[in-house]
Each structure stands twice: as C-alpha cells, then as structure tokens.
Amino acid sequence: MNLLKKELSYFCNKIYKNGFSPGTSGNVSIRKNNSIFITSSGLSFEEINEKNISTITINGISLDKDNKPSSEKFMHTQIYEIRPDITAIIHIHSPKIAAFATSDANINTPILAETIIHLGNIPKAPYAMPSSDELAINVANCCKENNVVFMANHGAVVLGKTLREAYYQLETLQAACETFIWANLIGNAQKLPKEKVDELIELKKRLKL
Q1: Of 30, 12, 158, whose CA–CA distance to 91 is shortest?
Q2: How far apart are CA 182 and CA 21, in angstroms?
C-alpha cells in the first residue's frame, strides 16, 4: 500500500511541476481491489506526500481519521464502478485544457494524428455543481467508453489502467490543446481528410491502443 501512496505522491508532484494543477485544484486517485487512495482536500499537488493521502472504500467511506478525502471522491467511485478495467483517475484544471471545457472550440477537429490515435473522440460531460452527485454521474456516464473526458465549464478527467498511463494521457491532452490553440492563432489549420482519419482509426484498432 505504501508503494501505491509513493506512486500517487510522485505523479501529483509531477503534475504540479508541469503546471497542470494550479493552486489546490484537481484530484488524483489510484485503486487497489476495494480500496482507493485519493488526494486530500485543500492541498496543493506540490504538498502531496505519503502521509497526507486519504484512503476510502469503493463506496466512498473514509478509512482515514487524519486526512479528509477530496470533495469529488464520489466522481472517482462512480467512474471506478462503471469502469472496473481502470485503476487510476486524474482530474485537473490546467488552463489550456480548461479553455476547451469552457468554450465551443472543437478539440476533436482532426489536425493531429496523435490525438486521433491516443485520445480518440473526446466527449464533454454536461455542467453540474462541483462535488455534486449530479457531476459524478454526468462524468462517469461519459467515461463508459472514453478514457478522456472534458467537464463543461470545469476541467477534464483522464483514466488509465495504471497511474503512469493516465499521466501520459494527460500530457497528450495538454499537448493537443496547446497545439490546437497555436494552430488557430497562426491561422489556416489544415484538417486531415476523412480517408486519412479513417486510416488512423484502423491503425489504432490494429495496434489495440
């Protein structure tokens, strides 16, 4: 269990250093059987260490007297319930990512092969009050067949079979958002034709990505 907390701490610190989680925003969790280790409420990812990580059950019951779990813990438990194949969730409010969560800009515009292959078509969960049951359900429903989901007027969640995998998804999403922003600032972003997009989707299937 300590190894999982160490891993969670490492990636939280990495997320902070890379500017993906300003202030005390965001939350990260990792699941082991029926236990979930999740970042505690009110802490910057820079401060996360093995001693201040919360432990909850798969039903969201806190098992830790000293640490208060993230107020969005039920979003994590709902996602784990609907996706038993994944063991890690990262929720962040990176400004570049949040820009797409709060606008009508379509990140799914096919301009990058890597985005099509590694991220797929990214849905946007309807807005609901942060930390509410409604938000948890909205996001979990969008995660049924997607490992990357925008949260309207909020941020995004990325899922993985490991925390490392989820983190790489986060980096890929951040790069895609930044590229899209720059391409549109420069102007005349070139879309891939449909037949090329179809080829990339077939490649993804063959590689089982």
Answers
A1: 158
A2: 21
Any alpha helices (H) in the chain, and if so which ranges? 2-17, 73-82, 95-101, 113-118, 133-142, 163-186, 194-207
Give dist(CA 157, CA 151) in Å, integer: 8
CA dist 45 and 132 (Å) reads 22
In the residue annotation, 72 being an active-site residue is answered as yes
Q: Are 177 and 171 in contact (CB under 8 A)?
A: no
Structure confidence by residue, pLDDT tens digits, 82-93: 999 999 999 999
pTM of the complete model: 0.94
Whether 131 and 72 have beta carbons less than 8 Å apart is answered as yes
Vertex 152, ends 150 and 157: CA angle to 5°?
A: 30
Query: What stretch of H or E contains 36?
Result: strand 35-38
β 35-38/27-32 pair status: antiparallel
Looking at 72, 81, 165, 171, which residue is catalytic?
72
pLDDT tens-place string over residues 148-170: 999 999 999 999 999 999 999 99
* CATH assignment of 2-105+120-166, among 3.40.50.2300, 3.40.225.10, 3.20.20.70, 3.90.1300.10: 3.40.225.10
What pLDDT was estimated at residue 64? 86
